[in-house]
Design a protein that fits this description.
With 222 residues, this protein is of the alpha+beta class. The chain has one domain: Immunoglobulin-like (Sandwich), CATH 2.60.40. The protein has three helices and twelve strands, in the order H-E-E-E-E-E-E-E-H-E-E-E-E-E-H. The chain has a six-stranded antiparallel beta sheet with strand order 1-8-9-6-11-12, with no helix packed on it. A six-stranded mixed beta sheet has the order 2-7-10-5-4-3. The longest helix has 23 residues.
Length: 222
């Protein structure tokens, strides 16, 4: 192997290994406690979506807001997209809120958590914050990201989820969904990542390409 070719191969391999992996608690099929995150919200890239929801069973209602930011504090890379959510359970609800499910995130890395320093005033007003205590991604392709009140009653009537954070390695987004669940379900418009090739996959292709050129050249000169 020539010195220049060997150096290129090693540099590409080092870059591949340097790409952050998805956090263990938010890989497809994984679950755990939410991370404490501090997103930079100075650069919004989407409109603020806010509105109301009512369960299909009529057991809860409330309001929500969501927005996407180009986040300089994103764990996967400065400027990658971070999705924020705030959910309020109406004081007139007869049921707590058990799970918030965001879709679709398959094909992207995620770090999922909460930010106690931010407060979604549009959704929550001056209500008390009761944050979810578990996060997860569905198994298989990991399409949905879930925030859950595990082993607790849930988000009580009249209280707010606080700021829920999903950091991703995406650079583009499109329309998606947010599902609020207990016995009943309410689904509203939100955002989801799209059209970005994970950096690790791109670098892997570069490594394989460099290796193919190297071995092809050796075969021709053998």
């Amino acid at each position: 192997m020539k010195k220049g070719t060997a150096m290129m191969f090693l540099l590409v391999l080092a870059a591949l290994l340097a790409v952050p992996a998805a956090r263990a608690n938010t890989m497809p099929g994984g679950s755990g406690s939410p991370d404490t995150l501090s997103p930079d919200i100075s650069t919004p890239v989407s409109a603020l979506l806010s509105g109301s929801f009512t369960s299909n069973l009529g057991d809860f209602s409330g309001t929500y807001q969501t927005q996407v930011f180009s986040d300089s504090n994103n764990v996967f890379g400065s400027g990658d997209l971070t999705f924020l959510y705030g959910i309020f359970n109406s004081g007139s609800s007869s049921a707590d809120l058990a799970t918030f499910s965001m879709s679709f995130f398959n094909g992207f890395q995620t770090d999922v958590g909460i930010d106690s320093s931010l407060y979604p005033t549009t959704a929550c007003g001056s209500s008390a914050v009761v944050a979810p205590n578990q996060v997860s991604r569905t198994s298989g392709i990991g399409a949905a990201v879930n925030f859950t009140y595990s082993g607790s009653p849930g988000l009580p009537a009249g209280d707010c989820s606080g700021v829920l954070v999903v950091e991703t390695n995406a650079t583009s987004f499109k329309a998606g969904n947010l599902s609020v669940q207990n016995a009943g379900v309410a689904t509203v418009a939100a955002y989801e990542p799209t059209a970005a090739e994970p950096a690790s996959a791109a670098l892997l292709l570069m490594v394989l390409g460099a290796a193919g050129l190297l071995f092809g050249k050796r075969a021709l000169t053998a």
